[in-house]
Amino acid sequence: MPSLTARLLSHPQTPDAYKRATQSPFLQLAGQGRLPPTTLSQWLAQDRLYAQAYARFIGGLLSRVRLPVRSDRPIRETLEWRVVQVLKSSLDGILVELAFFEDTAAKYGLDLAAVVPAEKVVGSSGGGGGSGKEFGPNPTTAAYVDLFDSFGAGGNANKSVFEGLVLLWATEKVYHEAWTYARDQGQASQTKAEDDLDGGALRKEFIPNWTSAEFGAFVDEIEACLDQYAETHSGADVDETALRVWKEVLQLEQGFWPQV
């Protein structure tokens, strides 16, 4: 039987949503160096808010893992230990990412508090933070923040570690695939990164970071951990729960890329 993640990736209900989530016009322009710094700033400011909420999400998910008190093997060989290690890597990585955002933004003159015009926000009716007048999360970012915070101390106590692992894998998988698509668009371009509209911020800094072998290996480890967890905690609702989270992430990711 295929693994859980293989079943999700090949599910007949999601191929169109997956393509829209990972192959947007924004990503195409990003890979070709044709995003103006204003547009990049607006998106990056939202991604930074997402990353800050992600850090809280990982902390909340860690608090739900229970390492075994007794085990017939060393604790570092247990699945729970593997989950904690994955979450530790996630937290370490997002802290590095937040510092990377600030350093790169300063280097290229990008604004991490840029406001997105309401007409460029998918799902916006003209109001809400981050679109129009005041800086804050736009509707899609706010939905992500709420989803991440539902795993926190003041969130939904019924949210399971399994559900959180699906969410973690789905977000990282789609992010990696999306920027891999952007990178591939740039490889066909004849222009140099120094001539890009953003001065090379994306093609010299961000895209190499988000398509690196290290990031790919990190996503692969989350996937392997989730698949092992699903095998160990098999039940009638495993696929149903996973598919629900997968669909939600794909829907949010489609709205996360600005209209260009």
UniProtKB/TrEMBL annotation:
An example GO BP is:
thiamine metabolic process
> Which InterPro entries did the record assign?
Haem_Oase-like_multi-hlx, Polyketide-peptide_reg, Thiaminase-2/PQQC
- What are the Thiaminase-2/PQQC domain coordinates in residue numbering? 133-258
Q: Which domain of life is it from?
A: Eukaryota
Q: Which Gene3D superfamilies match?
A: Heme oxygenase-like (1.20.910.10)
Which CDD domains does the record match to this protein? TenA_E_At3g16990-like (cd19357)
Against Pfam families, the record matches this protein to:
TENA_THI-4
Protein name, per record: Thiaminase-2/PQQC domain-containing protein
Q: Which organism is it from?
A: Pestalotiopsis fici (strain W106-1 / CGMCC3.15140)
Q: What is the lineage of its organism?
A: Eukaryota, Fungi, Dikarya, Ascomycota, Pezizomycotina
